[in-house]
Amino acid sequence: MSLLWTSEALVAGMDGRPLGPMPEGISGISIDSRTLQPGDAFFAIKGETMDGHDFATAAIKAGAGVLVVAEGKLPSLGRLTAPIIVVEDVLAALEKLGAAARARSEAKIIAVTGSAGKTTTKEALRHVLSAVGKVHASAQSFNNHWGVPLTLARMPIDCDYAVFEIGMNHPDEIRPLVKMVRPHVAIVTMIAAAHLGFFRNLDEIARAKAEIFEGLEPEGAAILNRDDGRWKLLDKMAHAAGVEHVYGFGENARSTFRLVKCELHADHSDITARIGGHEVTARVGAPGRHMVQNVLAVLGAAHLVGADLDRAALALADLSAERGRGKRHVLRLPGGPITLIDESYNANPASMGAAMALLNATPVTGEGRRIAVLGDMLELGDHSAKLHAALADLIVGTGTQTVFLGGPEMRALAERLPGEIRTEYRAGVEELKPVLLAALKPGDVVMIKSSKGIGFAKLVDALLGKFPAQTTSKQT
Ligand SMILES: Nc1ncnc2c1ncn2[C@@H]1O[C@H](COP(=O)(O)OP(=O)(O)OP(=O)(O)O)[C@@H](O)[C@H]1O
Ligand SMILES: [Mg+2]
């Protein structure tokens, strides 16, 4: 078992009080007893609805090496049969341990924020940098007040690179997180109307993302989307925060990391880019223009942290779209296959655009149709009806003429779509499911997308459950 932390460093890192004999160390850190691995330290974090202290026994059963619990909760926990470290506040202890992990690390650190594409970019960086060194990166979208310190505390001492996703719903959330991460490179993927309900306009969203510059290491670099409407504002804010090295990525001729040539195909893209004086030609294994944009930032960051660009570029060929973020399935129907594009992880106006472009670029066969299955985009506040209705612009006049809609907000789009688009609107995912399953025909390409809270992942599961997989898109 390789140790992530010796018990001595663990206790010292978070200023805790050990109770009972400690093990030599711990192999990982968990805040969820269901996914805890034997030998992990279990941090009993108190969330909005659950309190980790209620799962102390479950964590011991799962094989926790150490439990980290709050002083105030100790009396109510009874006798526990595992070593315990007592702290005043468990989240604060995780933050301290995160800071200790950062302090002992010699890794090159990259932080990624933006309105869409954070996880996609983070995973692409993980993939590309793994070709040249040992990489640590956030799990899933662990990008908030507990996800970031958890990822930091999990950072092995010997990694060469670490990649952190940093997210926000409100102003002042990114600042404390990035100050813990202290990245050498900060990427802002793009600015769009995500969580617009909590902001007055896109400029305000950009200002909140700009907090990421405040945590950059001295001599650190910001990588910004040169094609984005908020480029100028972000560039200004980066300089105002004292960042001297600000680089743009995109198609714009003034981009430092510039797309020179781009061929988009249904299941991959071929690109040529100028990266820091090098001309890089690469195949990008996951399709879509948005992926190409993300890849420019990835190559730029890889270059800035000193990774071998040729090897990084080569690794892009076997990049693949993640579950819920463009992953493709070819499913067998009686009479022929259908293609399912799983975009069900989340949705906002920008990612709807990216996903519709993917759908429109995917060929149908025979009598097949392109079908968009769209659910509500949440957290758009007063702008919601307008932004939902505006999705019509992504559909009218494109190769997608069949649309299934679900959720209260999608009514605005249903009402906007003209008669020539076949539109099925239902109140929610349960009502939509039978209609969709019954409508599919061989040759169809179906793209499913909504905000997480609306739960269109259930439609993906229903399709995967009903129709056997033929093969994955990578093999076709
Ligand atoms: N650069 C991009 N521009 C626009 N849309 C994008 C971009 N990259 C990815 N997307 C779209 O956004 C969706 C979500 O991507 P991803 O999960 O990477 O975003 P995220 O920023 O991590 O989201 P979250 O805030 O929910 O963690 C993808 O499925 C894709 O449709
Ligand atoms: Mg994410």
From TrEMBL:
Gene3D superfamilies: Mur ligase, C-terminal domain, Mur-like, catalytic domain, MurE/MurF, N-terminal domain
Reactions listed under catalytic activity: D-alanyl-D-alanine + UDP-N-acetyl-alpha-D-muramoyl-L-alanyl-gamma-D-glutamyl-meso-2,6-diaminopimelate + ATP = UDP-N-acetyl-alpha-D-muramoyl-L-alanyl-gamma-D-glutamyl-meso-2,6-diaminopimeloyl-D-alanyl-D-alanine + ADP + phosphate + H(+)
Keyword Transmembrane: no
Localization terms from the record: Cytoplasm
Major location category of this protein: cytoplasm
Positions of ATP binding: 114-120
One protein family per Pfam: Mur_ligase_C
Residues of the Mur ligase central domain: 112-302
Keyword annotations: ATP-binding, Cell cycle, Cell division, Cell shape, Cell wall biogenesis/degradation, Cytoplasm, Ligase, Nucleotide-binding, Peptidoglycan synthesis
Listed EC numbers: 6.3.2.10
Protein name: UDP-N-acetylmuramoyl-tripeptide--D-alanyl-D-alanine ligase
